Amino acid sequence: MASTIQEGIHMQAHILVAIITLAALLLYFVMAIEVGRARGRFGVPAPAISGHVDFERVFRVQANTLEWLPLFLVSLWLFAIYWSDLVAAGLGLVWIIGRILYMTGYAKAAEARSLGFLIQLVATAVLLLGALGRLIWLAVAASH
Amino acid sequence: MASTIQEGIHMQAHILVAIITLAALLLYFVMAIEVGRARGRFGVPAPAISGHVDFERVFRVQANTLEWLPLFLVSLWLFAIYWSDLVAAGLGLVWIIGRILYMTGYAKAAEARSLGFLIQLVATAVLLLGALGRLIWLAVAASH
Amino acid sequence: MASTIQEGIHMQAHILVAIITLAALLLYFVMAIEVGRARGRFGVPAPAISGHVDFERVFRVQANTLEWLPLFLVSLWLFAIYWSDLVAAGLGLVWIIGRILYMTGYAKAAEARSLGFLIQLVATAVLLLGALGRLIWLAVAASH
Questions:
Q1: Is B26–C67 a contact, with Cβ atoms under 8 angstroms apart?
Q2: Which of B71, B82, B110 sits opposite A29 (nearest CB)?
Q3: Which of A130, B75, B132, C89 would bridge with C16, disulfide CB 3.0–4.6 Å?
Q4: What is the sign of the dihedral through the CA atoms of B23, B28, B32 and B37?
Q5: Chain B residue with minimal CA distance to C55?
């Protein structure tokens, strides 16, 4: 009984970060669907990934987000597990907002992607360096 | 003693999903090796990723699977942890079958990739939306 | 009190692997920044990902590392959780060294990437097959 309650509390402790994770993946899912639609709209059949600059920008929205997903998701969870669930979820929300701005900006023009990119970069960097700092601190504390 | 047994049971609870995860990664590993072999077969030396349409299809098998791996793996584990290990493992098996059909189909022709792609898409969508629905339900239940 | 100590020990058991994970992601972060710098240096503005062979090699360093990150990170953690934290962390360090050699080699010439690539491939294969073997062994043992 006690262990069931404890496990329940432990699981609930990460529900927020888990929901943020799935919301981020849903956004990424939308980007992947957009690439398929852009293939038809701009006449770039598979397996080509170039040939029309408007298609390439839509393609790069998904590709760049994929490139950053491991950095973001792994840092998000290590931050949540070893430090703070709530802070991690908040930074995850900032990342999602940055990625939405990046997606809508890049679809218009390559230059319009910068603000959203910067926002998600800062959120990722805080999660990554925050988790790393916390873990080194824990490792040093454990060795004393 | 009790904690060792409990930990053992807890670990065994995810063994199935862990094996499915590694089987999916082994399949992805095979796709990556195929790209290296296709470089030689179709005369597309690194760092180029285009130049021969037969190479590009083999390359896109791996690239597209990579694009979907974060969606699949993260959804698989959140579904397993917060809901059902067995159902997650079953859907993971469906995903693997879809990806094998996708790989063998796409290697023949771009059009022949659709069935396998659809199968893995449905498996991923059920895992993602199932996990999200379950987590929102848990969050609402926890706030009561 | 007891559960806090146990949880503390449990967390500390994975601190090494968590630090290796973030170190690997930091290296990948550097590769991503290098792509951005190479865009300016070799005159390949976004969204293009080809056009200058020196840029393409820098781009492929990041892209290939991304292609291997799911294989590496997931195998690393499953090996650590189900088998040995220390051995996983050691193999993770080997992977990082291989990837540094790969990055510096590939930046010079496409041929100079082979040694580093081989080192990270072996580390990944040992982690993946080791974790899979261990899990199958645990599954068989559990069914007896």
A1: no
A2: B71
A3: C89
A4: positive
A5: B47
Pairwise CA distance, residues B122 & B113, whole Å: 15
Nearest CA in chain C to A114: C46
pLDDT digit string, tens, across residues B24-65 = 999 999 999 899 899 999 988 888 888 888 899 999 999 999
In this complex, the chains that touch A, judged by 3 or more CB pairs closer than 8 A, are: B, C
Q: Are B119 and B101 in contact (CB under 8 A)?
A: yes
Q: Specify the DSSP class assigned to residue B25.
A: H
End-to-end Cα separation, chain B, in angstroms: 36
Out of A74, A135, A142, closest to residue C25 by CB: A74
- Interface touch C26/A81, C-beta < 8 Å: no
Task: In whole angstroms, give the CA distance from residue C36 to residue A18.
Answer: 31
As given in the structure block, the two tokens for residue C86 are 């220390």
User: Cis peptide leading into C47, omega within 30 of 0?
Assistant: yes
8 Å CB contact of A28 and B70: yes
Tokens 């949540």, located at residue: A80
Mean pLDDT over residues C18-36, rounded?
95
Provide the b/e sequence for A113-131 (b: ≥16 CB within 10 Å): beebbebbbebbebbbebb
Report the distance separating Cα C60 and Cα C64, nearest Å: 6
Q: Is the pLDDT of residue C9 over 60?
A: no
**Residue B43 DSSP class:** T
Q: What does each C-alpha distance from A22 to A16, A18, A53, A94, C39 come to in angstroms? A: 10, 6, 30, 14, 32
Angle at which helix C53-82 crosses helix C85-108, to 10 degrees, equals 170
How does pLDDT run across A11-62, given as a tens digit for each residue? 557 999 999 999 999 999 999 989 989 999 998 888 888 888 889 999 999 9
